[in-house]
Amino acid sequence: MEYPNENMGKIGTIDTSSLVDKAEERIVQYIQENKMVIGDVLPKELDLALNLGVSRTVIREALLRLKTIGLVESKKHKGAVLRNPDVLGSLRKVFHPSILDDATLKDMFELRLGLEVGMADFIVKNITDEDIKELEDIANQVGSGDTAQTWQVEDEIRFHSKLYKISKNRILLELQVMLMPIFNYVHESGLLSSEVVTGDFVSHKELVEVLKTRDADAYRNAIRKHLNNHFKRILG
Amino acid sequence: MEYPNENMGKIGTIDTSSLVDKAEERIVQYIQENKMVIGDVLPKELDLALNLGVSRTVIREALLRLKTIGLVESKKHKGAVLRNPDVLGSLRKVFHPSILDDATLKDMFELRLGLEVGMADFIVKNITDEDIKELEDIANQVGSGDTAQTWQVEDEIRFHSKLYKISKNRILLELQVMLMPIFNYVHESGLLSSEVVTGDFVSHKELVEVLKTRDADAYRNAIRKHLNNHFKRILG
DNA sequence: AATTATATTATGTCATACATATAATGATTT
DNA sequence: AAATCATTATATGTATGACATAATATAATT
């Protein structure tokens, strides 16, 4: 029983949603019922207010929410126009190490590792000869004289960013862009057990060689091994 | 050259951000500079307005954005209190097939497949004997008489939801919950090439058997095969 | 026809007032 | 003294009206 008093039965809940909540709901409903598509414009604020029987203030706040999650975009004189929602856009502002708790940061660290292994099939499917050439170039840049830590990190990012691009999956790519700073933050923070160095490390060069075979299973195993040091830190 | 007129050189951009944009920025800045933590409350709207030299309306809209992305939560009488951001919360409203374009939907279909394969290590790491028992129960419920399509789908969802839970990764779990309806929608829509049936299918029961060995590599291969029909539809 | 003024319109911002819920305080009871 | 209840103060929620601003449509000019 989830009520404080055992004798207290369920009597139904009261609608505590604010006017803005309701207005937002109705507007989304309006969009769906009218089968509106990208580019269509919503009725102007005053009309919405009049029709829903609330003040313009409420409508503005409801619309602002829709703007914030990227569903609409407001143009002066024209109104709120539907846009192809930048699905992950709303995440961008939240994805900062400073405002996330440790558990979440760790989850994201994991997420990135998982994504990279999980997208093997999509990489192999879409990779072109030019892509391979490009990856090879990046992989070769290491060792070319300067082996300072910062350069290594940059090459690391370039190489893996390229992999995401090859996957031709926009969501994946955007996720990666947002996850990368968090990953690096966690990597360098004291959040995880200290780094370990294992024997059978797969280098970027070797990854490229595997990619040349266009064998997804083989690549999946290779990238998993490549990331093994990271995995070890969370798997213990 | 990205300017209409070749003769037009770069003269620097003008800050076109609205007052709300700036206010939002300053508030986030305030949070970081003061090293505020979960539970702390922001100054009240009127104080923020006075200090930033804008109207309360602007402050309210800025705060509303932060509320929408789940960074703060406003309590009457108290103010805007920092909350552990529900990172994916803002996605919930956008994740509806009706408002996403086909390309994005397909990307999400892929994402789910990738996640499931990519999280193999985390499942194997965290799985308990009870988890295995539970998975076994779900797997056995299939075939117990009723083989209607709807039941199959429900068992499918139950089984895979359980897998995500086992991963003990909240982000992964939340993503899955949001992705599932989209996945089903795409699965049933005419968006992908028609379904194919392959020979070597790995069943839920077999997956459980593999999990008993606690071998992440083996499980990764198994789940990849289990999802092979889905993969085939996008890989062609 | 092309450019330049003008008017119109819908959003952006401001100011003020009041409603409402809740934290804090004080009064009452046991 | 502790617990309960009533009161008050306070910060957000909502409403209203006004004006600023930018973009569109229209008219005027070249």
TrEMBL record, chains A, B:
Protein's name according to its UniProt entry: FadR/GntR family transcriptional regulator
Coiled coil: none
Alphabetized Gene3D superfamilies for the sequence: GntR ligand-binding domain-like, Winged helix-like DNA-binding domain superfamily/Winged helix DNA-binding domain
Xref: Pfam families: FCD (PF07729), GntR (PF00392)
Keyword Transcription regulation: yes
Keywords of this entry: DNA-binding, Transcription, Transcription regulation
InterPro entries in alphabetical order: GntR_C (IPR011711), TF_FadR/GntR_C (IPR008920), Tscrpt_reg_HTH_GntR (IPR000524), WH-like_DNA-bd_sf (IPR036388), WH_DNA-bd_sf (IPR036390)
HTH gntR-type domain sequence ranges: 17-85
Species the sequence originates in: Sphingobacterium tenebrionis
